[in-house]
Specification:
Shape: globular
Number of helices: 11
Radius of gyration: 17 Å
Helix content: 40-55%
Largest sheet: 8 strands, parallel, barrel
Bound molecules: 2-phosphoglycolic acid
Structural class: alpha/beta
Strand order of the largest sheet: 1-2-3-4-5-6-7-8
CATH superfamily: Aldolase class I
CATH class: Alpha Beta
Length: 251
């Protein structure tokens, strides 16, 4: 059985004080209630240290939204995986479509980052997904296959235990359009097939695949009930503690 994982991707929202407040509200909702899912939050880089301090004894995992593929050096404006590890991060989201689209991240760059994050002892959430144009051209599977294969190039089977893949159709992100549970399930199943061909049935069966793109409490249960959907990467709906908590309870 795979333990589901739901992560709130806060993107460029919430200053450090507001980030701490949101985590505290979430902690109050969770209280001592047992959840059936692993939970993570991904504040901006600026808020990571402050949020890390209040999460030190909490089951909520601290996630970063990006990092560089070098350890240190002349890379103005960047932070490294080792730095994230040192301040208590558990996961790094890599290859989000907004990074691919606005910051020109290629599959090769994503792969370099995946390697560096694993080398630093952290876990990876690697995002893949097709644009609307690609879906309409009926090349969703080709795009996803390329992103998965290139993103995981050179990653060992044992390191795959620290990799989560997030399938996020670009046309569903922040648009209010969600993939139907069956559309999402089809791609999730296909991703598991790719990972089977790259590694083994065992590795593929252990891999957690999150769905992302306009997930909210009203549609989470239906999506999470699909066989190959092991959680969610939640943008807008993770910025309100109660709504995010309801999504967590959808398992
Ligand atoms: P959304 O974003 O839930 O606001 O669509 C998801 C994501 O980009 O991770």
């Amino acid at each position: 059985m795979r333990e589901p994982i739901v992560v709130g991707n806060w993107k460029m929202n919430k200053n450090p004080d507001a980030s701490v407040q949101l985590v505290q509200e979430l902690q109050a909702f969770i209280g001592t209630n047992g959840l059936k899912t692993q939970v993570g939050v991904a504040p901006t880089s600026l808020s990571l240290v402050k949020v890390s301090e209040i999460l030190s004894n909490s089951p909520i995992k601290l996630c970063a939204q990006n990092c560089h593929y070098e350890d240190d050096g002349a890379f103005t404006g960047e932070i490294s995986a080792t730095m994230l590890q040192e301040i208590g991060c558990n996961y790094v989201i890599l290859g989000h479509s907004e990074r691919r689209q606005y910051f020109h991240e290629t599959d090769e760059v994503v792969n370099q980052k995946v390697k560096k994050v694993l080398e630093a002892g952290l876990n990876v959430i690697m995002c893949v997904g097709e644009t609307l144009e690609e879906r309409e051209q009926d090349i969703t599977n080709q795009v996803v296959e390329r992103q998965v294969k290139k993103g995981l190039k050179g990653i060992s089977a044992s390191d795959m235990d620290r990799v989560v893949i997030a399938y996020e159709p670009v046309w569903a992100i922040g648009t209010g359009k969600t993939a139907t549970p069956q559309q999402a399930e089809d791609v999730h199943r296909f991703i598991r097939e790719i990972v089977t061909s790259l590694y083994s049935v065992d590795v593929a069966n252990r891999l957690r695949i999150q769905y992302g793109g306009s997930v909210k409490s009203a549609n989470a249960k239906e999506l999470f009930s699909m066989e190959n959907i092991d959680g969610g990467l939640i943008g807008g709906a993770s910025l309100k503690a109660e709504e995010f908590y309801k999504i967590l309870c959808s398992f």
